[in-house]
Design brief:
By secondary structure, the protein is mainly alpha-helical. Helix content is about 55%, strand content about 5%. Helix 3 packs across helix 12, helix 4 crosses helix 7 and helix 7 crosses helix 8. Bound molecules: tryptophanyl-5'AMP (TYM).
Length: about 325
């Protein structure tokens, strides 16, 4: 289906937060209905910071189970593990040769991660956006549904695609990011100026997809708000409250305006409890389904094998075209 291909991925590093869910996975559900979707577990990106191998393997399967538990349907979309499709690394190599070191050094996430992992500023960390460009371009992707923090990486993938096409002739579809109006940047519950991140040191800053009800309620109870009393969506002045309204809306399927109306005249305490309950109610069935799927090892293995095969076929087609364009001998 031309003009219709969607690609996105999540790293199986650390526990996923409700930010990952609201900003990405949740938005994929509608897309799988009428688009040709590829959703990966980006384990090759994950090793750019140190990972425990056994844990990485386990988390990869857990992420696959989470995708399915959230409602992604392997009959409707291609779910696969990035490292099982070797063309990602192969295309990355070619794209490396049309990407400049200076561009990579300027990437916000590279600068942040270099600061956080000063003892491990490896080449992979710097090359991370090129691998991401390879992911996206391999499938001739039109749309990349991601959270706000990934927009710069999708922009560079666009730049790389345009540059390659200009140099070698039409090869790649030029992708664009699909950023939802609401929920593209879920903030930390402890510091509304920062994004909710799975690597946050403060355990109260983020809500994990696996948190139990009591933990969820406690974290929302402790969420930082402001000294006012009005429950109103105003991100600049009321970051904490606006973030909670966004989360509430995402988990109840309401709009932010409807959420504001629900809480007109109510106190912050009552509001925070209601947000916590909405999130806990939304997470419970996903958690139960995730646990059930993780028990069904053969089923999960089958889904990932079929996904890898489908992805492989699509990827092979693009890579062969790329190799032809750059003049690689392919045994012909
Ligand atoms: P990752 O694993 O850091 O995050 C996965 C997705 O979750 C979104 N996200 C958020 N959205 C809203 N609020 C937040 N607080 C929040 N935190 C994270 C991210 O924007 C992302 O959409 N490099 C990517 C994975 C990747 C990828 C790709 C994505 C690899 N290849 C190709 C798109 C296309 C990453 O690390 O995402």
């Amino acid at each position: 289906m031309d003009g219709n291909t969607v690609y996105s991925a999540v790293q199986p590093s650390g526990n996923l937060t409700i930010g990952n869910y609201v900003g990405s996975i949740r938005n994929w559900l509608a897309l799988q209905e009428d688009h040709n979707c590829f959703f990966a577990m980006a384990n090759m990106h994950a090793i750019t910071v140190r990972q425990d191998p056994a844990e990485l393997r386990r988390r990869t399967l857990e992420l696959a189970a989470l995708y399915l538990a959230c409602g992604l349907d392997p009959e409707k979309c291609t779910l696969y593990v990035q490292s099982q499709v070797p063309q990602h690394a192969e295309l990355m190599w070619v794209l490396n040769t049309v990407t400049y070191v200076g561009e990579m050094e300027r990437m916000t996430q590279f600068k942040d991660k270099s600061a956080r992992h000063a003892d491990n500023i490896n080449m992979g960390l710097m090359d991370y956006p090129v691998l991401m460009a390879a992911d996206i371009l391999l499938y001739q992707t039109d749309l990349v549904p991601v959270g706000q923090d990934q927009t710069q990486h999708v922009e560079i993938a666009r730049d790389i695609a345009v540059r390659f096409n200009n140099r070698f002739g039409e090869t790649f579809t030029v992708p664009r990011a699909l950023i939802m109006k609401q929920g593209a940047k879920i903030a930390s519950l402890q510091d509304p100026a920062r994004k909710m991140s799975k690597s946050d040191e403060n355990p109260n800053a983020c809500v994990f997809m696996t948190d139990d009800r009591e933990t969820v309620l406690r974290k929302f109870k402790r969420a930082v708000t402001d000294s006012g009393s009005e429950i109103r969506f105003a991100p600049a002045e009321k970051g904490g409250i606006s973030n909670l309204l966004t989360i509430y809306a995402a988990f109840t399927g309401k709009t932010v305006e409807e959420a504001e109306k629900d809480f007109a005249g109510k106190g912050y305490g009552e509001f925070k409890l209601a947000v916590g309950e909405a999130v806990a109610d939304g997470l419970a069935p996903i958690q139960a389904e995730r646990a059930r799927i993780l028990q069904e090892k053969e089923y999960l293995r089958g889904v990932l094998a079929a996904g890898a095969e489908r992805a492989f076929k699509a990827a092979r087609k693009t890579l062969s075209k790329v190799y032809r364009k750059v003049g690689f001998y392919q045994g012909e």
